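Section 5.1 Outputs to date
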Amino acid sequence: MAIDDPGAAFKFVGGSLCLDFINTVSGRGPNPAALAGERDYADIVEKERLVGFDDLMRWGRAAGVLTRAEAAELERAARAGPAHASQVMGRARGLRQAMYRVFTAVIERWKPDATDLAVLNRELGRARAHERLTSGMRGIAWTWNAGGRDLDRILWPTVRSAADLLTSDELKRLRQCDGEDCRWLFLDTSKNRSRRWCEMADCGNRAKVRRFRRRH
């Protein structure tokens, strides 16, 4: 798949950059809301959408984190330093899992694990080191000071998004999809805060089909 077609493998239903990043994997395990005893959840296999560094760049393009020129620049840098690219992928997956556990702890009203918060703080510190105040047509704003070999630049706005969400009132809208093998996270912006599915056309319809089959 060419980087010029970045969004084919991804969906953006989370309502926040960090949640959409977390949602690049699905099928994480059992949903407490699902009917018990109908499925062996040990057999669930996670559906990974970030298999290689090129997938991470595609996601960055689709999410609006990278321009086409920046993605091409990163592609060249990754080819020149495959070991570095592999290291960044390991960090990306580690950050994604830590964010998932922290946000699900929030949903369940548990205390987040200190190890997961340490991962977020470590990546946030790296990201903050690349932030700069710049002046433009709309005034002074935060921008990213990135170089051609900063393969982890996709992680910077992602972890900052997580920090912003965790410390905002929007966190009260955080939900987890009721789909049996989904577990995606999203912000419930519905008027009565009754949204149950990441997408009604996807997990919602599958749940309807399952209910119909059980009745008949």
